[in-house]
Amino acid sequence: MMMLGLGSVGLVLLSLAVQSGHGAQDSAVWSREETTERNYYTRYHNMSEITAWMEQMKRENPDVVSSMVYGQTYERRNITLLKIGLSSTVRKKAIWMDCGIHAREWIAPAFCQYFVREILRTYKTDTKVNEMMKNLDFYITPVLNVDGYIYSWHNESTRLWRKSRSPGTGGCTCYGTDLNRNFYANWGMVGVSTDCCNLFYCGTKALSESEAWAVTDMLGKMREDILAFLTIHSYGQQLLVPYGHPNTSAPNHDELMEVGLGAAMAIKAVHGMDYTVGTSPDILYPFLGSSQDFARLIGIPLSFTFELRDKGEHGFELPEDQIQPTCEEAYAGAQHIITYTHDKAFYSYAATVTATLWTTLLAAWVSSAILL
């Protein structure tokens, strides 16, 4: 018997040399493996465990998974993404996904891990996923706000930490900037605070935070290739589309809404959960300086913010028994967006047909579909 440990994560995979007449024993061993792996994705994991998991994904899938350090945090920790896709001789289009920009939203990194597991689990047998892996590369950052995420794991008093961990300036003794208010997208105008002790502190200037700068730099280099930008948050069960300004709409607002409503339908079909779709001024509150708005402003056509479960009963402390159903439904929503994005880019006629179908379905559904 051979045991492979995933660093400090504790995920143990077992394999057994099968001899004639020992099929039942082999079956039992693999049943244990499946249970163990499944249990891994039903728990929250600290940063060292996630880092070990990222390394394991590369080792187990060397042909399709690589990693890239594309920035450093204030405390000089690496910001790392996984690049997932089948090799190609031509320049590929891309999907961006980041999780954990707000430290206390633990369900977000859990979803990024689940998403990676699912596409790696299915691409060899699911023809559509395989096709998308040939045509697209997925750039996935499981934890963007590494300093803040680590701090949120220290003890109960730090569990709800939201911001980065950079120190205040000008005599302010508080720490941290809200990274999702720090992007160069109408920075500092609406829905932010200039008080460094406030949860929504936007920083001293746009891109004052190295984490926001790292994302900005990557998106700038790749903007001609990125077809969709997905940033994962919690909570509220919402799909937000640009822009956060109350008087500004994205040039493709109708398309964003149509695709978002289709994703909400896909989410609802899994466990019956309702997700509200719209701009933040319409369904949440106006705020500027977000990564979603920046992505759309630089020309990435499809930009969405996922606000995962729940609607406030547990809030940021979503119980672990809700990780799996939350990830299952969010995966369905993300898959809808990514499939639409792929088909529009590579099969424009199919995308047009799909859009027409969704328009027909939505006409009957919109009255009860949580669109505000």
Automatic annotation (TrEMBL):
One of its GO terms (biological process) is proteolysis. Residues 43-341 form the Peptidase M14 domain. The keyword Zinc applies. Its cofactor is Zn(2+). Keywords: Carboxypeptidase, Hydrolase, Metal-binding, Metalloprotease, Protease, Signal, Zinc. The active site is at E307. Residues 1-23 form the signal peptide. It comes from the Eukaryota. The keyword Signal applies. GO terms for cellular component: extracellular space. GO terms for molecular function: metallocarboxypeptidase activity; zinc ion binding. Belongs to the peptidase M14 family. PANTHER family: CARBOXYPEPTIDASE O, PROTEASE FAMILY M14 CARBOXYPEPTIDASE A,B. This is Carboxypeptidase O. It comes from Oncorhynchus kisutch. The lineage of its organism: Eukaryota, Metazoa, Chordata, Craniata, Vertebrata.
